[in-house]
Amino acid sequence: MTDTGTVRTIVGIVGNVISFLLFLSPIPTFVRIIKEKAVKDFKSDPYVATLLNCAMWIFYGLPFITHDNTLVVTINGIGFVIECIYVAIFFIFSPGKKKTRIIIELLIEVIFMVIVILITVFAFHTMKTRALFVGILCIIFNVFMYSSPLTVMRMVIKTKSVKYMPFYLSLANFTNGLIWVIYGLLDFDINLVLPNGLGALSGLIQLILYGIYCRSTKSDDDNDVSGNRSVVELSST
Question: What does the mean pLDDT of the chain come to?
Answer without folding.
Answer: 84
